[in-house]
Write a structure and sequence with these properties.
The protein is built from four helices and eight strands, in the order βαββββαββααβ. The chain is of the alpha+beta class and 154 residues long. Strands 1, 2, 3, 4, 5, 6, 7 and 8 form an eight-stranded antiparallel sheet that branches. The longest helix has 16 residues.
């Protein structure tokens, strides 16, 4: 089986939208890799995240906003011979996005982004939010500097 690079924007978006989480890679305060899963929203080549307003990941991202985000879906184990371990593999589709994370402070923009995130999971984007809930959530935007996508076995 061969890997193929995916360049069609609509196919890349289909992969991203079929994922339940994304994994965000960052560099921690000791210059070591640190990766966490996030719920997300995606719109116009931009990834949106939310989190509690304080903690290790917030400190890391405020210190160094460069991130790499991975999406992976359609996993399917295959083999050429059930008895030969080396003949096993995994089909998949994946997307990598690199960019700089920025924190959003404006309450109206936070609400717009939270609705994009909710749309990823519920297909709705018309929710109501209380003032304290908006004030006490960290909302982040990553505009893609680079996007690469690949499929293996499909």
């Amino acid at each position: 089986m061969k890997s193929r690079f995916i360049t069609l924007p609509q196919e890349i978006e289909r992969i991203i939208r079929s994922c339940e989480v994304c994994n965000v890679g960052m560099i921690d305060l000791e210059n070591k890799p640190y990766t966490l899963p996030f719920n997300f929203g995606f719109d116009d080549q931009t990834v949106y995240l939310h989190s509690g307003p304080a903690g290790k990941k917030i400190d890391i991202l405020r210190n160094n906003p460069d991130v790499c985000i991975s999406f992976s879906t359609d996993h399917q184990l295959y083999n050429q011979s059930e008895d030969v371990a080396c003949s096993y593999g995994m089909k998949y589709r994946s997307v990598l996005i690199q960019g700089k994370l920025e924190f959003i402070e404006d309450a109206d923009e936070k609400i717009r982004i939270l609705n994009i995130i909710m749309r990823q999971y519920t297909k709705r984007d018309d929710y109501k939010y209380s003032g304290p809930s908006v004030a006490n959530v960290a909302v982040m935007r990553i505009k893609a500097d680079t996007i690469s996508a690949k499929a293996f076995g499909y």
